[in-house]
Amino acid sequence: MIPKYLVDIKLDELPVIEKDVIVIGAGIAGLFTALRASDRHSVLMITKKSLLDSNTRYAQGGIAAVISEDDSPAYHREDTLIAGAGLCSEDAVNVLVHEGPEGVNQLIEMGTQFDLENGEFALTKEGAHSQRRILHANGDATGYEIVRALSEKALSKPGIEVWDDHFVIDLVTNDGECVGALVQKPDGSRLLVRGKATILCSGGAGQLYRYTTNPEVATGDGIAMAYRAGAFIQDVEFVQFHPTSLCYPGAPRFLISEAVRGEGAVLRNTRGERFMERYHHQLELAPRDVVARAIISEMEATKSTFVYLDVTHESPDMVKHRFPNIYEFCLRYGLDLTTDWIPVAPAAHYMMGGVKTDLDGETNIKRLFACGEVSSTGVHGANRLASNSLSEAVVFGKRIVEAIDKLAEHAEIQPIIESSVPRSSVPIQAVVERRLKLQKIMVRYAGLQRDAKGLEKGLEELRRQLPIFQAMLTKREEFEFANMLTCALLTAESALQREESRGAHYREDFPERNDQAWRKHTVMHRVYGRTEERLTNV
């Protein structure tokens, strides 16, 4: 069994820092929530690298919200529910589609500059959206623009203190309440940060897979530490693979935004054939899981490691103007988006599940909240609709702060972390090798296509790494590996349990969706094990 804490330490021997609100992580969720909370509370933001290192920074497509007069919350709701494949919480989706436009306005008030055309927002369309409702910035650099604006504002706010290069090892709980976090400083020393509320904004777990669009920091820390603390972890079998990441020798798995297909790009196999009509009536704009599996099928049929994305029939001026960053990045590797077919393949992109929350972003542990990709609000169901993630972060970030405003002060209780497992002083060898092996196991056995035999084999190999929890961990990369192993086990176990195919979860041995048996959430708990929660809405 995974222990409650990664390290053994007596908290009464540590320095203590008091803050009203502790925000763990950066990105749009952490920055937006910290800014909103700082109006009335003292806020500490803790990031393991810097404010600019997050998945948000790499978000190209944009943020989805009902802005156009031709659009409506009802349309946005329907698109989200269809993409979510029967597992969305209708209440959570209603919150998102009705409160999303206000969230966009707040981002603008905080300094975000979205692209305009003739004085109006330049709205685009992405896969599985029925309307043009995606706001973007600098063409294809929406995430970077949001992080730029919010981080500048956060650094200028006297109510926000930022700790870069600090690692949160564990959440500290007492009698069912989160009272703060155990933090390791850059010099290796540790301290306890106590707060009235703690908000996980630590992003996803893309680094579980060898090929991912996520940055190095996306190691599932928030999900793992919440699991150890006793939070419910929901639906982590649903990992979204982005269909089109650059797949070219010497180049990283750079995201080629869905918006490129939204503006007319088509997919071709290595024989030059356009193939999406064989898989879905929405062609290249089908839901991401459908497009990703179609690409894998074509790769297998043509014995290739990629397919092509072709936007050469569109105006070169439009391509360069709309996708300046993608154009320039590809050019660095000798690929011209306006004249060349771009080799692409699926890569791990987004985790739909995460730490289970209510509509105010609070977990089953009092005073512990989760926002953004680390959370499972119920918005995304089994397959996230493109560009809903940034909207979710601002909508639920605002709700979290409103809930914190109403919190009473917690009692002054000093909990003690007691030794829960015998720790070995044997140094951990080659964490880098272990990490790579874990990533390969996940790609092979718990990737886009799964079956019972493979998942059982993957779990067997992952469990061989469990002795890590009995070792004396001291370095960031060791903590990260322990967190990745926790998330990998949860993902593989949840995927093995769900004997159907739905959304981003595809079982070759159970290829059909089964609403009668499986229209329910998979919920994991450190002590109670696996439970299920059937959806009441139809």
TrEMBL record:
Pathway assignment reads: Cofactor biosynthesis; NAD(+) biosynthesis; iminoaspartate from L-aspartate (oxidase route): step 1/1
Name the SUPFAM superfamilies on file: FAD/NAD(P)-binding domain (SSF51905), Succinate dehydrogenase/fumarate reductase flavoprotein C-terminal domain (SSF46977), Succinate dehydrogenase/fumarate reductase flavoprotein, catalytic domain (SSF56425)
Any idea which residues are catalytic in this one? R288 (proton acceptor)
Q: What is its EC number?
A: 1.4.3.16
One cellular-component annotation, GO: cytoplasm
List the coiled-coil residues: none
What reaction does this enzyme carry out catalytically? Answer: L-aspartate + O2 = iminosuccinate + H2O2
Q: Any idea what this protein is called? A: L-aspartate oxidase
Q: What is the lineage of its organism?
A: Bacteria, Bacillati, Bacillota, Bacilli, Bacillales
